[in-house]
UniProtKB/TrEMBL annotation:
Zn(2+) 2 binds at residues 198, 202, 208, 216. This is Peptidase metallopeptidase domain-containing protein. PROSITE patterns: HEMOPEXIN, HEMOPEXIN_2. Pfam families: Hemopexin, Peptidase_M10. Keywords: Calcium, Disulfide bond, Hydrolase, Metal-binding, Metalloprotease, Protease, Repeat, Signal, Zinc, Zymogen. The keyword Hydrolase applies. SUPFAM superfamilies: Hemopexin-like domain, Metalloproteases ('zincins'), catalytic domain. It comes from Pocillopora damicornis. Belongs to the peptidase M10A family.
Length: 445
């Protein structure tokens, strides 16, 4: 079963007349048969209706059989005047988690940001509801099957789901991209996640795309739990909200105890993210506040890195540094201390840092790299030098860097690219855009 959207009959008629000029008799015959059918209430320009209407399905099939020229993404005539949107939904926690994940799908590739509010007031931009039958808009639901959901374009930010449907809660994000298993929905159920991503797209100002792999295609399957935006979806939402250039502030590996499993964390501003071990997409429920997950950590650190032994994590900010006990999961007493006093030769306000297995720690600031020998507590002779001289193929002016302890691979971040350093071959493998390769999310971090 599929979620189906339709434009108004006049829009379809105009499209057919415009794109099928070479077959006028066929078009007229189809349009005459359409006009003779039972009329359907005209949709306002601000609404997008998702419904299974048999007569329109037949008409759409006829149009498709004539190979109408595909359009790409389309935008509504109205848009939000701001990018920081607040949403509200009076739903159970599991449904709220699905909606949060659905909003994140769009936040990860655009400059839109979304915040859930616990109460309904005039600050709310988008409200999501489960409703039944008639519910004070022109598009009543009809019980199980047929009509599943609909949404309204900006600035009328409402998304409605049919409460009589059996919605399945599980969801995955781009599982196929990472060759992970995609779970089907439970028998007799439909994917709330896929429906939500589609309808939220409408509430942000996206109309239907003619690209069949787009989540904004008029007919999408609700029998799978996975969503991965098509390039056309990304182009559409970035046309509305702009493309963000990620600047990873701090990324590091960490484990709580000696026999623990290494995990990768990202810190930026007052928040932190934990990345999935297989896909490096951030885990559900993140971001979280640094103050809630890391005792006594400073807000917005310049860089965080683990020492090669795995038992200590260092936090640098400004002219100070902190030392964190990984095994006890607490900050050492007596910190912060002066960088100049305990790391001679290392500048304040560093950009990036990481520690290698041979007990060297590399610090980066601007175009330069400093090599610090922790065994001798001194900066190595001949430093600083240009980053590109020390690490051939790595650009200067890094944003962050870290060692993935699971693979012992070094990653360097520069704007929206990363560079992977193979410690065996001592060479770099230029990475692609973060949003398309290893670090999948862009705007979210």
């Amino acid at each position: 079963m599929k979620l189906m959207d339709f434009d108004s009959s006049s829009q379809i008629r105009q499209m057919a007349e415009r794109t099928l000029k070479k077959r006028p008799q066929t078009v007229k015959r189809i349009l005459r048969s359409w006009i003779r059918r039972k009329p359907v209430p005209r949709q306002p320009k601000t609404a997008a209706k998702d419904a299974h209407l048999a007569n329109r399905t037949a008409y759409l099939a006829q149009i498709n059989s004539l190979q109408v020229r595909n359009r790409r993404y389309a935008l509504s005539s109205s848009s939000w005047g701001h990018r920081n949107l607040i949403w509200y939904a009076n739903v159970q926690p599991m449904a709220a988690a699905v909606f949060t994940a659905a909003f994140r799908v769009w936040a990860e590739v655009s400059r839109f940001t979304f915040q859930r509010q616990s109460h309904l007031d005039s600050n709310v931009d988008i409200q999501l509801k489960f409703l039944k039958n008639g519910h004070n808009d022109p598009y009543p639901f009809d019980g199980p099957g047929n009509s599943y959901a609909h949404a309204f374009y900006p600035p009328h930010g409402e998304v409605h789901f049919d409460a009589d449907e059996k919605w399945d809660i599980p969801y995955t994000h781009c599982a196929a991209f990472f060759n992970k298993t995609i779970s089907p929905v439970q028998p007799g159920c439909k994917s709330l996640f896929r429906a939500a991503v589609h309808e939220i797209g409408h509430s942000l100002g996206l109309k239907h795309s003619s690209v069949s792999t787009s989540i904004m295609y008029p007919t999408i399957s609700l029998d799978t739990t996975d969503v991965c935006l098509d390039d056309d979806d990304i182009a559409g939402i970035q046309h509305l909200a702009g493309k963000c250039v990620p600047r990873v502030k701090s990324i590091f590996s960490w484990r709580k105890h000696q026999n623990g499993v290494w995990a990768t964390y990202v810190m930026k501003g007052t928040n932190y993210w934990k990345l999935d071990a297989e896909t490096t997409v951030s885990m559900p429920t993140y971001p979280l506040g640094i103050v809630n997950g890391w005792v006594s950590f400073p807000k917005d650190p310049d860089e965080v890195f683990d020492y090669s032994t795995g038992d200590v994590t260092y936090i640098f900010k400004g002219s100070k540094y902190w030392k964190y006990d990984n095994y006890r999961d607490v900050m050492y007493r007596g910190y912060p201390l002066s960088i100049a006093g305990y790391w001679p030769g290392i500048p304040d306000n560093i950009d990036a840092a990481f520690s290698t297995l041979n007990h060297y720690t590399y610090f980066f600031k601007g175009n330069e790299v400093y090599k610090f020998n922790q065994g001798l507590d001194t900066t190595s002779t001949g430093y600083p030098k240009l980053t590109s001289e020390e690490w051939y193929g790595v650009p200067n002016d890094l944003d962050s860097a870290f060692v993935d302890r699971k693979t012992n691979t070094i990653y360097f971040f520069h704007q929206d690219y990363y560079y992977a350093w193979n410690t065996t071959t001592q060479s770099t493998n230029p990475g692609g855009l973060i949003g398309h390769t290893k670090f999948f999310e862009i705007c979210d971090i």
